Amino acid sequence: MKLIVGLGNPGKKYEHTRHNMGFEVIDLLAEQARIDVDKEIFHGLLGRGEILDEDVMLFKPTTYMNLSGTAVKEITDYFKIPLDDVLIVFDDMALAPGHIRLRLEGSSGGHKGMQNIIDLCGTQKIKRIRIGIGEPGEWDTIDYVLSKPLQDERPLIDDAINNAVEAIKEALKTDFDRAMTKFN
C-alpha cells in the first residue's frame, strides 16, 4: 500500500491558493483514478483505490499546513505504512511556477508543513514532490502563499500539477528513481 499525501489548507477560503498545490495534485490524481477522497479520518480526507495495479491511499490532511505531521503520523502508524511507501506533495517558493522537483529525502527547505512531518516522523528520508510557486518578491510571505496565483502563472502551475501527477504514475509504474530521472 502506497500513501500519497497532498499538503494544503482546508476550506473554501484556501481553494486554489499557492499553498494548496498538494491538494490540487491529489484532486487531479483522484479524478483520473476515480478514487473518492472523502472519508474523514486521521485529521484528513482519505481515499483508497488502485492506480496502475498498485494499491494506494490518497490523503489530504485537514490540520492546516503547519500541523500536517500530526495527520501523516496518525495514518502511517495506524496502517503500519513504512515511510519508504509515503510520498508528500507540496508547494515550494524556491522553484519557479511550472517547475517540479522530486527528492528521495532532505530538509524541509523552510516549508513548515514538511518540517512538521519530518519532526513527527523523526526522519528526513521521506519522498517528496515540490510544486513551484515562485518567490513572493515584495509580498509578505504568508499573504503570498495564501493568495491565488496570478493569471499568467496559473497555466504554468497547472502544467506543474499535471507533471506531478504523471511523475506519481511513473513512480508507481516503475520506481521513484526513474520518476526523478524523467521529471527533474
Short description:
The protein has 184 residues and is of the alpha/beta class. It is built from 6 helices and 7 strands. 37% of the residues lie in helices and 22% in strands.
Largest sheet: 7 strands, mixed
Beta-strand residue percentage: 15-25%
- 3D shape: globular
* Low-confidence spans: none
**Annotation, overall tally of beta strands:** 7
Percentage of residues in helical conformation: 25-40%
Mean pLDDT: 92
Series of secondary-structure elements, N-terminal to C-terminal: EHEEEHEEHEHHH
What is the strand and helix layout of this fold?
Elements: E1 2-6, H1 21-33, E2 39-41, E3 44-51, E4 54-61, H2 68-79, E5 86-92, E6 100-103, H3 112-121, E7 127-132, H4 141-145, H5 154-173, H6 176-183
Helix pairs in contact: 1-5, 2-3, 5-6
Please tell me about this protein's structure.
The chain contains 6 helices and 7 strands. It is an alpha/beta fold. It has a 7-stranded mixed β-sheet with strand order 2-3-4-1-5-7-6, with helices on both faces. Strand 3 and strand 4 form a beta hairpin. The model has no long low-confidence stretch (mean pLDDT 92).
Essential attributes:
184 residues; 7-stranded mixed beta sheet; globular; 6 helices; alpha/beta; single chain
